[in-house]
Structure formats: structure tokens, C-alpha cells
Amino acid sequence: MSSRRKFIQNLALGTTLAVSLPEIVTAAGIKRTSININANDVILFQGDSITDAGRDKSKDDANDPRTLGTGYAFIAASQVLLKKAPLNLRIFNKGISGNKVYQLAERWDKDCLKIKPNVLSILIGVNDYWHTLAKENAYSGTVETYKRDLKDLLTRTKKDLPNVQLVIGEPFAVKDVRAVTDEWYPAFDAYRLAAKDIAKDFNAVFVPYQQIFDEAIKHAPANYWTGDGVHPSLAGAALMAEAWLKVVGI
Amino acid sequence: MSSRRKFIQNLALGTTLAVSLPEIVTAAGIKRTSININANDVILFQGDSITDAGRDKSKDDANDPRTLGTGYAFIAASQVLLKKAPLNLRIFNKGISGNKVYQLAERWDKDCLKIKPNVLSILIGVNDYWHTLAKENAYSGTVETYKRDLKDLLTRTKKDLPNVQLVIGEPFAVKDVRAVTDEWYPAFDAYRLAAKDIAKDFNAVFVPYQQIFDEAIKHAPANYWTGDGVHPSLAGAALMAEAWLKVVGI
Fold this sequence. Notes:
Chain A is an alpha/beta fold. Helix content of chain A is 42%, strand content 9%. The first copy, chain A, has a single domain (3-248), classed as 3-Layer(aba) Sandwich (Rossmann fold), CATH 3.40.50.1110.
């Protein structure tokens, strides 16, 4: 029996009474931190396909739904713009599908520094590992490459924007869903830990996405939260946005 | 001085201390009602461009971010799928830009009845009025046409789906923003009131969108919430979703 069918059967056996989900983000012990958001601030989301989420790259306006994709960045942005309405914020998403850290670096002047974000949120790393597994033209970077590239990127960012407030997301994967096989472990864990360590070194707020997905799969089957183990479903994107908002203090 | 500049100046004069927005939806006095959502239920959003919000009409999968547009339906759906994760819900958006009630009726078999929603949310009416103002080929329907068409549509729906739970959104407009001129009033108000009366007649939950936009413009300029007076900005869409979720009890 598939895990999904088993899950539905369990529902039928009595847990339908619990129609309202406990707050996964609260259950995961995620706490508010101290990002300050002021009038006229700029918030920038950066990353790979999880951040990109099909955004319209032909347009460049802040707060334009089409430019924000249909992922966690869009959902988080919508809540920031609602809850901080009097602040006249401008929010951008410049994630690009397939990116690894070195590819962020290649477009950093245009897609980050020139935008002068007050809050910069970066989620990067799953491709730095995943693409090493490719059958053809596999990426040759290691976790040491990832660490060096990410530190270099953040050092460069802090040099140009000394007051930028950093939010770093934990690269995550949901095991046993399509792309994410046993082969990933323990190698992939080192990337998660590297992101966490580097966040601490750069005084960044850290969003523990792996922790919330680990909690989420207690409430619905893994493939409810992600179609392939790497890219979140709409429910997964909403979960990520909730964690992001909580951590950022919104 | 533009209202936006004046608003920003007011911020600078001291209200920046109030960085967190009071809950507009709470301030508007919107209350939870009694929609029941059960395991495996189907939720359908129907309406015009405000619901459509650029959705990808080439796909038909439930819960697919691309098929849900980038408006209030997407944001509300994301929160429903997160907060009701154990229920295995399926959510669709079948709004089509430009639609008036009679155009919903023309595609109702395919785009509603066949989908067999347990919860059907309809927001329709602004075009039933707005298109009467067109310089060429103006729509000849009146508020009486709107009432008759909407009652007929709901009667037909209830006949085919006797247990469907209805959510009816109030058509709304934000005065003095681009398209919405003095010319709209008081004629447009009759459409809002008609929707409210019909919601009551059909035992539908009513989402008072006009009321929340009237409240919202106390917190940020009108053009922060809508670009043209009719279509919500991302902040406006988030506001609508928050009201929808509150009214539906999620």
C-alpha cells in the first residue's frame, strides 16, 4: 500500500477529528529573531529554482506578483506587504532555476548589489550537491567548494552593503521522494551544516527548512510537501514562507 | 502633493513607530463562519480577472501553483493546504479575466458542476457594472440583470450540488484610483448590496471585500492596495486572502 493511501486510511480510522493542523513551525521550535524592517526598505530573495518558482524574468518591478514566482518568496512577500503596509517596502525575487553558489556570484553585481537590499534572503546549496550526481557533465564542486563560494559571496556582499541584514535558508531535501535517494546521505547533510555554520559566522538569521520539513511529514505524506524531494509543492512553499516569516519576526 | 508622498511624509513625522499593522480584517469586524471542510474535499474558486490573476489555463491539476494564478485564490489556497494538510484537499481556480455572471453560466457545466466542489467560492460582479461604462460596445446589463443571472446560477448550482457550501465575495472598487471615478457611484453600490442579499438568500458565507479595502486605505494609500481601483496589488490580494480565510474559518 502506498504511503499516501495508508495515510488516507489512517485519516478514515479516526484522525479526521483533528481537522486543524498544529502549527508545524511552532512545533519545530522555530523562534523569532531580530531583523529590523524600516520604512522604504528593500527586501531581496535570492536562490535557485525553489526561490525562482517560475517568476516572470521579463519584468523588473518590485512587489509585482508576476515577478515573484509562485513559491515561498511570493507567499512570504504577500504577507510582508500586508502586515507592514504602512512601510512602503519594495520586494524583489531574483532566484534563478538551476543555480549553484558560483552562479549567484556571476550575476551578483546586477542581481543583488545594485538593488541595495536592506534585507537579503539567500537559499542556495541543493544544486551544489545534487548536480554532482548527474550522469553526464556532473558538477565537480565539493562541500569545501560550497563553503568557500558562499563565504566569498557573503564577504563581498558585506563589503559593498555593510548594513545589509542577512537571512540564510538551510538547503533541504525530503528523503525517499523521487530524486532524493539513499545516495544523498550522509554527503548532503554536510551542505546543510555548512550553511548553518556560515550563517552564524556572518551573523545571519538562519531558517532551518530541513527541520520544518522533517516535522511536516508527521502531518501529511512526504509527497504532499514536495513532488520530487527537492522542489516544494504549494503546501511546502506555504510552510517555508511561514517559517521565513516567523524567523524574520513578521 | 500626491497622496502617496503625503502618506510617506506622515510616516516620517512619527508613525513609523507603529511598524506592525493592526489586523485590518479584525478591525473590519469580520467574523468566522461555519464552513465545514472534510478529508478529500474539493474547493473551487470562481470569478473574473481578480480570481484568474494570470493562472496557467493549459494545466488542470489541483493544487498546482501555476494553475492558481498570483492573486487571492493562490494565497488563500496556500494557507488552506498548509493548515489543513492532513485532509488531502484538492483546490482549483477557474476564474477567467473579463467575465460577467452570464459568462460564468456559459461555462458552468465544465468549470464548476463537473468539478463537484464541496466548497464553491465565487467573486463576480465588477465587470457586470464596469463594462456598462465602455466607450464602445458597452454591456447593456443592469443591476437587475446581475441579480437575475446570479440567482439563476446559484439555483442551478444548488440543484446539481445540493450539499455545496457557498462562499460569495462582495464586488468591490477603490474610489479615486484610476478606473474608479465618481461616475461609478451610487450605481455600483447596488451591485455590492445585491451580492450581499443574494448570499443571504442562498445561505452563503459572505466576504465583505469592500469593507476591508475601506479599512485598508486607513493604513496605506489606496494605490498601495490596487493599481487601477479594480485589480488588487499583491498587498491587496493578501488582504483579500486573509479575509477569505477568516470568514471560512481557517
